[in-house]
């Protein structure tokens, strides 16, 4: 069979995501802070975009309602488009100019108001450099410090550290003993038992019974097996409690206070206020620039040579599409929040225990959008409610069936489980089976013990045996 080249025409349809559509989808799923960074980046890169300056007259005028634009008014829209035009009916109330005094702290530079956070490694290395160890021991100490975990425990053996620092295991062990006496005391220990024993010795606590408990019976203390300990050491429960009180003064995780995790600050995208018998939704516009097209570039567009004109038109289309995408994002966020408030009105009235089952499909059908759009707009978005700040996805939860055929949200059940455990008797904590029975009586919901255990674990609550307090 011979091979040959042949030209052939084929007509087909395919879905192509244009750069503009990709940008609109990306803007949907950005958090508020990420959106601010994106807008600022576009302002720097696109000469057709500029940040409008609000005048007092503009601040006192309500934003006009959204209107259909005709081809004849398209050019005017591009010239005068700004945030107030975009927000339309879902705009917040008109802004009022408030004169405020400049705080003394605001006159400082940004760097002057920030203090650096010390790391465990840096804190230990600082002490290592100030110690009387020789150069070889300092090298071994650096290897030890670089092999500590976030809790301050040593994760390498003496042999491994010896290979890293070209030393003997005996030399490594001597340096480790020195570092264990640094601040925080007990750092560079291999086990919790070793960590606590180092602290007992450093603080001058010489008690054979306490040392034996730390060395051999920490697991018994964790599982609250107190009576066998009393029989072994021939002490009473009151005396054992005194030993436990002394142990609680020690720190089994000396490096935890130097944790590297930074706090996450949340800026709400939407505010929901109760006004009379209804709820008012306000989009958080603080920090969002009022985008508009640069009039100088718009006026010079027609007089430019063909090559420059093509570049100008491309940037102009990019600027207009960005503003339209931002408008669409705000409009979608408002509609989704409005639908959530409508479905979860009892939550906004009474709190978490009245949260109803809700899925993305319900909101998507309510506002006439696709589920993927609702999923994107609820990602990393936060709502400030009368009961606190919640992620928008928090309002979507699965359902549990009640005996009367109705349903209750899983988050409501979790909140009720948390409240039951908070109100329990510490000496007689509620078992998962008992909590299931109480839920049956209170909500008329058939819930299995393993489901209660799953919800309890999701709330980071220990089992009843570990919650029990003997003393």
TrEMBL record:
Domain of life: Bacteria
Span list, region Disordered: 54-74
GO annotation, cellular component aspect: DNA-directed RNA polymerase complex
Signal peptide: none
Annotated RNA polymerase sigma factor 54 DNA-binding domain residues: 310-469
Sorted UniProt keywords: DNA-binding, DNA-directed RNA polymerase, Nucleotidyltransferase, Sigma factor, Transcription, Transcription regulation, Transferase
Residue stretches making up the RNA polymerase sigma factor 54 core-binding domain: 110-297
One of the record's GO molecular function terms: DNA-binding transcription activator activity
Biased composition (Low complexity): 60-70
Gene3D superfamilies reported for this sequence: Homeodomain-like, RNA polymerase sigma-54 factor, core-binding domain
GO BP: DNA-templated transcription initiation
NCBIfam families: PRK12469.1, rpoN_sigma
Family: Belongs to the sigma-54 factor family.
Name of the protein in its database record: RNA polymerase sigma-54 factor
């Amino acid at each position: 069979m011979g091979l040959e080249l042949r030209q052939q025409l084929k007509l087909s349809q395919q879905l192509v995501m244009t750069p503009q559509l990709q940008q609109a989808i990306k803007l949907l799923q950005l958090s508020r802070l990420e959106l601010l960074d994106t807008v600022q980046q576009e302002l720097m890169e696109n000469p057709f975009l500029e940040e409008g300056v609000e005048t007092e007259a503009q601040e006192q005028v309500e934003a006009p309602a959204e209107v259909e634009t005709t081809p004849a008014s398209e050019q005017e829209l591009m010239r005068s488009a700004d945030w107030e035009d975009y927000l339309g009916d879902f705009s917040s109330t008109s802004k009022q100019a408030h004169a405020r005094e400049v705080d003394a702290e605001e006159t400082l530079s940004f760097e002057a108001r920030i203090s650096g956070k010390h790391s465990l490694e840096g804190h230990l290395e600082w002490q290592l450099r100030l110690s009387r160890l020789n150069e070889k021991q300092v090298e071994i100490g650096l290897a030890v410090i670089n092999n500590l975990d976030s809790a301050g425990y040593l994760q390498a053996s003496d042999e491994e550290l010896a290979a890293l620092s070209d030393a003997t295991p005996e030399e490594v062990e001597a340096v480790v003993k020195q570092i264990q006496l640094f601040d925080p005391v007990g750092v560079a220990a291999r086990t919790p038992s070793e960590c606590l024993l180092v602290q007992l010795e450093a603080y001058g606590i010489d008690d054979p019974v306490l040392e034996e408990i730390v060395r051999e019976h920490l697991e018994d203390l964790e599982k609250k097996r107190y009576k066998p300990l009393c029989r072994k050491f021939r002490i009473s429960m009151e005396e054992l409690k005194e030993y436990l009180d002394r142990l609680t003064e020690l720190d089994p995780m000396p490096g935890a206070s130097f944790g590297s995790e930074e706090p996450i600050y949340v800026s709400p995208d939407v505010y929901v206020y109760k006004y009379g018998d209804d709820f008012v939704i306000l989009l958080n516009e603080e920090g969002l620039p009022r985008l508009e097209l640069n009039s100088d570039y718009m006026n010079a567009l027609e007089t430019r040579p063909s090559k420059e004109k093509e570049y100008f038109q491309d940037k102009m289309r990019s600027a207009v599409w960005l503003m339209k995408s931002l408008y669409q994002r705000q409009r979608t966020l408002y509609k989704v929040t409005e639908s959530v408030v409508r479905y979860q009105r009892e939550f906004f009235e009474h709190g978490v225990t009245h949260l109803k089952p809700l899925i993305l499909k319900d909101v998507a059908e309510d506002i006439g959008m696709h589920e993927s759009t609702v999923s994107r707009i609820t990602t990393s978005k936060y709502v400030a409610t009368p009961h606190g700040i919640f992620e928008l996805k928090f309002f979507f939860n699965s359902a549990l069936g009640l005996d009367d055929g109705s349903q209750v949200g899983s988050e409501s059940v979790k909140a009720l489980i948390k409240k039951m455990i908070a109100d329990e008797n510490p000496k007689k904590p509620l078992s998962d089976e008992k909590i299931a029975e109480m839920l049956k009586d209170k909500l008329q919901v058939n819930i299995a013990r393993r489901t209660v255990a799953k919800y309890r674990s999701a709330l980071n609550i220990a089992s009843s045996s570990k919650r029990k307090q003997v003393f």
